[in-house]
Design goal:
Blueprint lengths: L20 E4 L2 E9 L2 E7 L5 E7 H8 L2
Antiparallel strand pairs: 1-2, 2-3, 3-4
Length: 66
């Protein structure tokens, strides 16, 4: 889903795909996997370590719009 040049999700109702970028608390996360309604989000820290977060697909919209 390419809503603009940086793949940011800005619609109120949306569906995300693997590879999309979402912003939560001013931090960009990439959708790495979608498994049984759960999203695995990942981001690379400045020091090169990878951080992951698991979010229920139906909770993602509320996190983005905070």
């Amino acid at each position: 889903m390419d809503l603009n040049s940086s793949n940011r999700i800005k619609e109120k109702r949306f569906k995300v795909n693997v590879g999309d970028t979402v912003t939560i608390d001013q931090v960009d996360w990439t959708v790495a996997e979608i498994i049984n309604g759960k999203l695995i989000l990942c981001r690379e820290e400045i020091d090169g370590t990878i951080q992951t977060m698991e979010v229920a697909e139906n909770k993602l919209e509320s996190l983005i719009l905070q």
